[in-house]
Write a structure and sequence with these properties.
Chain lengths: 412, 182
């Protein structure tokens, strides 16, 4: 005798979703960093992997936090210059210039033309050195050692030039509020031109090795693509933003230091992927070389510091040694700091990594009341938790390399 | 508006997809570089050329007459961002230098902690006597923390004597003998 037995299946969808985790297998937690060659510093990524695919990524920052902003409140404006070297330590000269410009904006101080030209040279050479490293290390991340060797050799030459100009290879501390620490050495401009002549063939060589290389293209094309809208929403700046096709370049859009005088193009990408970011940096080096050449062609004579700013820039050394007035002034500026009026000011400069901003609040006197630093790397990294999920674990190296961040500036 | 230049992206050609042009190009680079002169500096044997005004280890200097230039004004101690300099002011020995004693001071102790120093050169820049100079020594080492603190004797030993354009004490003497001391 056949009996019918009633069974309930229940909600099929609910059952399926209950079983889904079981069907998909376990995910694995993977921790990369804080000390890992991929992360170019002390970035830590907490990831959840499904097989080889990243499901979730949470960047953990702050391992290099030194409290620069607080330190700034306890010292005069000039004393803080060496600390700006240590923000983006791959382009210290550009940081020095951005910081000095911010304080000068507050003091409504206009530096002479020669000083501006020196600063433009500094910024562009810093950009070249940063991008040379960016491209070289990126090649290494993707498995191409040779490129790194070539670009590093060129960067070494640049550092020799910096050494001659500022006295140090790495921690330049070159600018002062109202000018620069010292004038350019004799014959230095000629050596910069010589460097420019040497760097372009090396770039062509890199181009030959990487740009049409199938292995490199397979690893980078279409990987880590950021859309225009996302890039703007996450506050990405610099080459990473332009690679997405947004033509924001502060040198063109809010010209400072007389950048409007120079003829250069702003390269923009089309896809916003890792390959675009590589092309971007290579092209920016070429554009920077153009700016450097124009700058040297029309290098103005004159003073390298604002001579009329008696309460801001310390007097000439020869005068300090011989005249009482200047000696007192020297003591005043050193002990009380450059006298800057009360107020608030925000200035951002187009640095190699993006827009480096300084927000200075002053209550008058020679010490900032508050100094906020907007580190471009910090904002550029904010997209990681959106960008990385869905990529293979091996792509992480390439994506991080292509974003070209510096933790010194990210954590400050 | 910004003058932009859109980066070109061309798809790979068939030949490029076979890797062959890249391999040939890569090998060309390798052999080409093999024939070139090396760029590496064999460091401890070969030394780099240090430019003028290099910011190396800070040192104290004496003027050509062997007088200490530092008058212990402590401006460098004040400006030093990492607080590496420690100065204890002292008197000048009246018997050794009667004309300078009770007029100027000299440091009794002058310590620069090289573990703290960041070679920024602010001390040299602010010194009103041109007494402290960052010279061309760039590598230093020690077995203990105490050893890394350069005291006054060490600083003068490292600094030596630099040419002095001003020689203010000689000028003062000349002025005094000419009858217009002040």
């Amino acid at each position: 005798m056949a009996t019918t037995k009633e069974i309930t299946i229940g909600d099929v969808n609910a059952r399926a979703s209950e079983l889904e985790t079981e069907l998909q297998g376990e995910t694995m937690a993977l921790n990369v960093g804080p000390s890992h060659p991929t992360t170019h510093g002390v970035l830590r990524l907490m990831m959840e992997l499904d097989g080889d695919v990243v499901k979730k990524c949470e960047p953990v920052l702050g391992y290099l936090h030194r409290g620069d902003e607080k330190i700034a409140e306890n010292m005069t404006y000039n004393q803080f210059v060496p600390y700006t070297d240590r923000l983006d330590y791959l382009a210290p000269l550009a940081n020095n210039v951005a910081y000095a410009m911010a304080v000068e904006k507050l003091a409504a101080l206009e530096v002479p033309e020669r000083c501006q030209s020196i600063r433009v040279l500094c910024c562009e050479l810093a950009r070249i050195s940063s991008h040379l490293l960016g491209v070289g290390v990126y090649g290494m991340d993707a498995g191409a050692w040779t490129v790194f060797m070539f670009t590093f050799t060129e960067r070494e030459k640049l550092y020799t030039l910096f050494e001659e100009l500022t006295g140090a290879r790495f921690t330049t501390s070159y600018t002062r509020i109202g000018g620069v620490a010292r004038d350019i050495p004799e014959g230095w401009l000629g050596r910069v031109l010589e460097f420019c002549k040497g760097v372009l063939p090396v770039l062509d060589q890199v181009d030959k090795l990487l740009t049409r290389n199938r292995i490199f293209m397979d690893r980078t094309v279409g990987v880590g693509a950021i859309s225009k809208e996302d890039a703007i929403a996450y506050g990405i700046t610099g080459p990473n933003l332009r690679a997405c096709g947004v033509d924001l370049d502060l040198r063109k859009d809010k010209p400072y230091l007389g950048y409007e005088k120079y003829d250069f193009d702003v390269p923009i990408g089309t896809n916003g992927d890792c390959y675009d970011r590589y092309l971007m940096r290579a092209e920016e080096i070429r554009q920077s070389v153009r700016i450097v050449r124009q700058c040297i062609d029309q290098f103005p004579e004159g003073a390298y510091y604002a001579e009329d700013a008696k309460k801001i820039f310390a007097p000439n050394k020869a005068k300090v040694l011989t005249s009482m007035e200047e000696l007192i002034q020297n003591f005043m500026i050193v002990t009380e700091g450059p006298q800057v009026p009360a107020g608030e000011v925000y200035f951002e400069a187009e640095n190699p990594k993006g827009a480096l901003g300084f927000f200075v609040v002053s209550k008058g006197g020679g010490v900032p009341y508050r100094l906020k630093i907007r580190g471009p790397s910090f904002c550029n990294l904010s997209i990681l938790d959106k960008l990385i999920p869905g990529h293979y674990l091996t792509d992480i190296t390439v994506i991080l390399g292509s974003l070209d961040f510096v933790m010194g500036e990210c954590d400050r | 508006m910004a003058k932009t230049k859109v980066l070109e992206r061309k798809p790979l050609t068939f030949a490029e997809k076979t890797f062959i042009p890249q391999i040939i190009g890569g090998l060309k680079t390798t052999f080409g570089t093999m024939l070139k002169k090396g760029v590496t500096l064999q460091y401890p044997e070969e030394r780099p050329v240090i430019p003028n005004n290099y910011r190396g280890v800070p040192t104290l200097v004496k003027d050509p007459n062997g007088r200490e230039k530092c008058v212990s004004c402590q401006l460098c101690e004040f400006v030093c961002p990492p607080k590496a300099i420690r100065i204890t002011p002292g008197e000048i020995d009246a018997e050794a230098e009667p004309d300078r004693a009770h007029v100027e001071k000299a440091p009794k102790e002058f310590d620069i902690n090289m573990l703290r120093c960041i070679y920024c050169g602010l001390c040299q820049e602010v010194c009103p006597e041109e007494a402290i100079f960052l010279q061309d020594i760039f590598s230093l080492s020690g077995y203990s923390r105490e050893e890394m603190v350069n005291n006054k004797a060490k600083l003068y030993e490292l600094g030596g004597t630099l040419p002095d354009k001003h020689l203010k004490w000689d000028k003062k003497k000349a002025a005094e003998s000419a009858g217009n001391a002040h």
